[in-house]
Write a structure and sequence with these properties.
The structure holds 3 protein chains of 3 kinds. Chain B is an alpha/beta fold. Chain B contains 9 helices and 13 strands. In chain B, the strands form 3 sheets. A 6-stranded mixed beta sheet of chain B has the order 6-7-8-3-9-10, with helices on both faces. A 4-stranded antiparallel beta sheet of chain B has the order 2-1-4-5, with helices on both faces. In chain B, helix 4 packs parallel to helix 6 and helix 6 packs parallel to helix 7. The longest helix of chain B has 18 residues. In chain C, helix 2 packs antiparallel against helix 12, helix 3 crosses helix 10 and helix 7 runs antiparallel to helix 10. Classes of the chains: A mainly alpha, B alpha/beta, C mainly alpha. The interface between A and C is large, with 55 and 60 residues.
Chain lengths: 274, 308, 299
């Protein structure tokens, strides 16, 4: 499991998990799960297009992820956010359907783009993934405070000179970058589970933002490692394990929070000292 | 949801509840049956997430009365209104509407909430929203009968919204939207109308117009109005009585009875001055000889006095 | 004139049985998606709609595996997922967003597994493509019948819930005070939406049915202020996009570069988006509100 070509897989998967945990924290905070779902799915169309004209998949992914993110931001100015996201997504997917039908791509390759293929990571892919991952994490660290402010209280942010629309655009670009690097590993349909499940679970365990972010990275790492190990042994798609573990960790978080709440409420049931 | 209330109401009569909760009546206010009362709030307490938001609130609203529910932001006005409507479960106390234990979703109560999602992109005209007040709970598509149209037109005219009945609600100004929402609440002919901060975000002219409209409705149609606001001055000319909410407790009576230095100081649990200037009333906190400052949100965190 | 028509509508277009079935099933599905979608947009549930469609892929791939009609897989899983989403039942928009995402993630994980099994055990090549991108021209007559029945069901539910849905979209508090059982209304609506997107998933594909759900409704919002009319427009725009898409796809058999035609889904989605962009033109916006305002200011 740890021999030869699997080393690349473990390395890339670890980078993906760290980035997903960090970026995902803000996705959950901002309530933009739909965006996290739409950008990777749209980017998938780019991969299909890249193979049609014969350029690197990573380029196709990156270009389409960026177009998608910026399209969502642009459309979001004139209609509701969720409608804008849906429209941007379906346009890209429509193009994806076209590219697929025009190219002579084999079904298994499409399948692996959608659902992930951890065993096929080559050494040449490690460096770009690491570079893009570093850029994403650095961008989040730099934007941390204004992004936090505009996520939690947009009006207050505006008052302090944080343009919430500009912040949204910057954040969407980071999501696009994170997507295009993670997509070949966990797949278009499931990168999003990794960006939503662990942070949502982490949020139930602590109220401290930085701790929640760290916890989210830890849960994401555990999810990805466990998923790869399970996928390697069972030969089942890694996406299945990522999705299932995401749901399990979220459920655990909700359960823990509920248990904590009832305990606290019982503690408070005794007369409040006035 | 209402189990607890109904239980309390059937097993205990009003007097028992009052004495059990150990509460005395507010100034000049006694629970003498509920004959002419449109609304009786009896010993309501509410805990949210372990924090006591409202504590033992008592007051009544009589038929055709215009009552202002005054308190700063966070004083619990919205929570109290939601309890009255049955949208929020109180931890203790009973609400009676028209003398009956709170009939849930009774058409006897009209409600204008504070936050309403009225996007300009919503294809919903003013008259559609008013129509939903008439039969919004019914199944099926509304049939455009003449009677329905007449009722809606009448209602729109009555609130001075006749001219913009065919416009999207989302495109209307704040004051115009308030009129439409009031028409929505009134068209089912309620006995009691509850409004949550209807004057917030209105310019001074619309503010006056809405207050006059509500006063006229209360007077002409014998509808009791309970209106929450953080500012009492616009309501002074029309308010029959006031319910002043601070630190989770309430004092009720006429404005002269309640808005006095002694009463409000006890309510807030700190010294406040009530100052009359040019027919307006200002409530300011005075701390010893320090500079006076308006009583703000901090009122809610003060220790609750063992008062009255 | 006839010549031009001939060029656009290829000879044999209406004589072709699969095309006729596609026109019927596609049209019905587009109508239902448009009508149901209007409330999806008003209630801000586009993500839930999209998630239900994607999860439909799980049912579709499961059905391939079990060897039953994919329709049942799509509809069955959609209804189950809608139930789970409502059960998690978070009212805050951001919390609801996360809950939807988790259900979606888990569903897609299952889809990955089913498709893998499809490829491994049953050797149904092309299951992935057909489940994800639809297969309008291979709908059988009997499936079309079931589609019509389900469509009528979804339309009936939305028609009955018309007023409660509208009122609770404005404000759940106002709806509750007016006597609307808000949660049951929401659940029934979610179920109707699950059925609508499942049907759309079957025709233009799981990950594209969102286009028919959201696009026509978002377009219709701009065309009129009357709610009923907007719902009607939404349905008609969906039908127009679908039929035109089918026509173009039929024509495209002779287009370069491939010799097998372009996918219907691509045309439908593109048309939906073009309609949406056209509706954003300022001239169209005037239809929906400014006219009345101008009349009022003038008079």
């Amino acid at each position: 499991m740890f021999s030869g070509f699997m080393v690349n897989t473990w390395t890339v998967a670890t980078i993906v998990a760290v980035v997903a945990g960090v970026v995902g924290f803000f996705i959950v905070l901002r309530g933009s799960s739909f965006v996290a779902d739409a950008v990777p799915q749209g980017a998938f169309a780019g991969a299909a297009g890249a193979s049609l004209i014969g350029v690197s998949t990573l380029v196709g992914l990156g270009v389409f992820a960026l177009i998608g993110a910026l399209g969502i931001g642009w459309l979001g100015r004139r209609s509701r956010q969720d409608v804008a996201t849906a429209l941007a997504l379906v346009v890209m997917l429509g193009l994806g359907a076209l590219f697929l039908s025009l190219s002579v791509e084999y079904a298994p390759e499409i399948y692996s783009l959608l659902f992930g293929e951890v065993l096929g990571v080559s050494t040449s892919e490690v460096a770009p993934v690491a570079a893009i991952g570093a850029v994403c994490v650095a961008a989040i660290i730099v934007m941390y405070r204004p992004l936090m402010l505009s996520s939690v209280m947009p009006e207050l942010g505006e008052a302090r000179g944080v343009r919430s629309h500009r912040m949204e655009m910057c954040f969407l670009v980071v999501v696009a970058l994170a997507t295009s690097m993670s997509l070949p590993v966990v797949g278009a349909l499931l990168i999003f589970s990794l960006m939503v499940g662990p942070p949502a679970a982490a949020r139930s365990f602590t109220s401290k933002p930085l701790l929640a972010m760290a916890l989210s990275v830890v849960i994401a790492l555990a999810t990805v490692w466990a998923a790869i190990a399970a996928s390697y042994t069972s030969n089942w798609p890694v996406g299945f394990f990522v999705g299932a573990l995401g749901a399990v960790s979220y459920g655990t978080g909700r359960g823990w929070a509920a248990w904590h709440r009832t305990r606290a409420a019982r503690g408070n049931a005794r007369p409040l000292a006035v | 949801m209402t189990d607890l209330d109904e239980e309390a109401a059937t097993s205990l009569d009003a007097g028992t509840v009052a004495s059990l909760s150990g509460a005395a009546m507010t100034a000049g206010q006694h629970l003498t049956g509920t004959g002419g009362d449109a609304l009786t709030v009896d010993g309501i307490s509410v805990r949210l997430a372990g924090r006591e938001v409202l504590r033992d609130i008592h007051f009544t609203v009589r038929a055709g009365e215009f009552v202002g529910l005054i308190g700063s932001n966070g004083a619990g006005k919205t929570t109290l209104l939601r309890v009255i409507l049955g949208l929020q479960q109180p931890s203790a106390g009973v609400v009676r509407i028209d003398g009956a234990d709170r009939p849930r979703h009774a058409p006897a109560v009209g409600y204008v909430p504070q936050k309403v999602l009225l996007d300009p992109d919503m294809p919903l005209r003013a008259r559609d929203l008013v129509g939903l007040g008439l039969d919004g709970n019914r199944l099926g598509i509304p049939l455009p009968t003449r009677r329905r149209r007449q009722l809606i037109d009448e209602m729109l005219r009555a609130v001075g919204a006749g001219l913009f009945g065919d416009e999207r609600v989302g495109n209307l100004s704040g004051g115009e939207q308030q009129r439409v929402l009031i028409a929505h609440a009134l068209i089912s002919r309620p006995r009691l109308l509850l409004l949550d901060e209807p004057l917030a975000n209105l310019d001074i002219r619309s503010e006056q117009e809405i207050v006059e409209l509500l006063a006229r409705v209360a007077r002409e149609q014998q509808i009791s109005v309970l209106l929450s606001a953080h500012e009492m001055n616009p309501l002074l000319p029309v308010m029959d009585r006031i319910v002043y909410l601070a630190a989770g407790r309430a004092a009720s009576g006429t404005t002269d009875e309640v808005v006095r230095t002694e009463v409000l100081s006890k309510l807030y649990g700190q010294h406040v001055d009530v100052i009359h200037v040019h027919g307006r009333i200002l409530v300011v906190a005075g701390r010893g000889d320090g500079p006076a400052e308006p009583v703000g949100e901090d009122g809610a965190h003060c220790a609750v006095p063992d008062w009255l | 004139m006839t010549h031009l028509l001939r060029m656009i509508v290829e000879p044999g277009f209406f004589g072709n049985a699969p095309v006729r079935v596609a026109l019927l099933a596609g049209g019905v599905v587009a109508l239902v998606s448009g009508v149901v979608g209007m409330f999806t947009v008003l209630r801000g549930q586009a993500f839930a709609g999209h998630a239900l469609a994607d999860i439909g892929a799980t049912g579709g791939s499961g059905a391939f595996l079990a060897g039953i009609n994919p329709l049942w897989g799509f509809v069955g899983i959609g209804v189950v997922a809608a139930g789970i989403m409502e059960m998690i039942g978070i009212r805050r928009p951001r919390g609801r967003d996360v809950a939807t995402g988790i259900v979606l993630g888990a569903g897609l994980g299952l889809a990955a597994l089913f498709l893998y099994w499809d490829a491994t055990f049953s050797n149904t090549t092309g299951a992935t493509i057909s489940v994800l991108f639809g297969s309008m021209f291979v709908i059988s007559g009997s499936t079309a019948g079931v589609i019509v029945v389900f469509s009528l069901l979804a339309l009936t539910v939305v028609g009955l819930l018309y007023r409660p849905l509208l009122l609770s979209s404005v404000s759940t508090d106002m709806a509750t005070v007016r006597g609307v059982p808000v949660r049951i209304t929401g659940l029934l609506y979610l179920l109707a939406m699950a059925v609508a997107v499942s049907l759309a998933a079957l025709t233009i594909g799981a990950i594209l049915s969102t286009a028919l759900l959201v696009g026509p409704a978002a377009t219709a919002l701009r065309l009129t202020s009357k709610t009923g009319l907007a719902v009607l427009w939404s349905g008609l725009i969906g039908i127009a996009a679908t039929w035109l898409g089918i026509l173009l796809a039929y024509d495209s058999f002779y287009w370069p570069p491939a010799q097998h035609g372009w996918p219907v889904s691509f045309f439908v989605v593109t048309l939906v988006f073009v309609f949406y962009l056209l509706a954003q033109l300022p001239a169209v916006g005037r239809l929906s509100g400014a006219r009345a305002r101008r009349a009022r200011n003038g008079g």
